[in-house]
Design goal:
Largest sheet: none
Number of domains: 1
Strand content: under 5%
Shape: elongated
Order of helices and strands: HHHHHHH
Structural class: mainly alpha
Number of strands: 0
CATH architecture: Orthogonal Bundle
Helix content: 40-55%
CATH topology: Protein Yjbj, Chain: A
């Protein structure tokens, strides 16, 4: 995932952040409000690492799964639908009715 996913949906990542870094506190995450530099500095502080190590650890964490409530976000869904257009045959729209697949009424 990219940092903009985290930044745009900051509170949805609190649980994943606290799972990864149990030293993190929700009140401090509220203060950070998705600011990447502030988050790196905070993780470095609570884990007693230097900023480079914290940044690398965060970069590795970003390779993980996006929380379900972010994945279910309509903005994310619409983006995924738009990206799927490269797999849709010419002359069809990526938002066309999929009734023949049984998922539309």
């Amino acid at each position: 995932m990219k940092w903009h996913h985290v930044q745009e949906n900051w509170p949805a990542f609190y649980e994943a952040i606290i799972d990864k870094w149990p030293e993190a506190e929700e009140s401090e995450l509220d203060e950070i409000d998705g600011d990447q530099r502030a988050f790196i500095a905070y993780i470095a502080e609570v884990t007693e690492q230097d900023a480079r190590e914290a940044r690398d650890e965060i970069r590795e964490w970003l390779t993980g799964e996006i929380p379900a409530d972010v994945v279910m976000d309509p903005i994310h869904d619409n983006h995924s639908i738009a990206l799927s257009s490269k797999y849709v045959p010419e002359g069809e729209d990526e938002s066309d009715d999929d009734a023949r697949f049984g998922d539309d009424d």
